[in-house]
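Residues pack. Consider this:
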Amino acid sequence: MILAVASAHVQAIIDAIGSGAVFALIAVGIGLVFGVLRLVNFAYGQLIMIAAYMLAFTDGWNDAFSIVVAVAVTVFAVLVMERVAFRPLRTTSPATMLVATFAISFLLQNAALLRYTYKDRPQGDSIGTLAELNRAITIGQVHVRWVTIVAICTASLALAGLALLLGWTSLGLQLRAAANDFQTARLLGVRANTVIMWAVAISGVLAAFAAVILSISRQQVDQTTGLDVTIFVLIGVVVGGMENLVSATLGGFLIGFANSLVGAELPTQGSWPFTSNVYLPSVIYLAVILVLLVRPGGLFARSGQAAVERV
């Protein structure tokens, strides 16, 4: 009995780490754009949706080529989004840009919904890309799915690559300068449009990677794909601390970890990483409120951190 209980806890922790890794990956994409543009991109979930649809449309193709197409289309979509919607509104208030992201989000959701409106079939498209990664490795009474390992490795490599980019390249220096003081950076020769395009393009790549991992587990896409997870990640970014990319990423990981771990202790429905029940959102939101009451700047924000320390 004791061994079974211990195995159940180990299983829950492993699944929670995998879930936290996916949430951290999304948090990096959201935090990177926020650091440069000061924009909370609520439409980020629809970038995940677009990538997932590309995987569905190319289902049956070579898996590697299908993923490349998903990444390319997602990057193109976010660059169009930046050029058409974000750039003209760049000098407006943050509230105006936030409302614009809401509008884009619902526009893309309804555009996806049109796919099913006049079709005699259930809503949603199946995805078979890398479906074999849903198999599990059994160690004693613990089952570790390959997709969990892929999620952890992908998030780790993406974070390491981004750290190298920010710390050791000219582009990284410009990104950090723009995040610290955008106007001064422009006066010193930083090409604003180029830096912003690179930031949103990288966020698009991360969204596509997250979509691949989520699609392996869920194996289906519809107009709401990416929305639920993005809302949780946004909460995690706020809890971690939006003024710093590291704290935002840790916040994303924490909310994903908590979502899976707490969900494992409550009656749940659905599959990893979407463990859900009627109690889970209430528990998570209550915990978020308590954290923000104690640490309004974010759980991982440094004490006395200046508002300009963002990346």
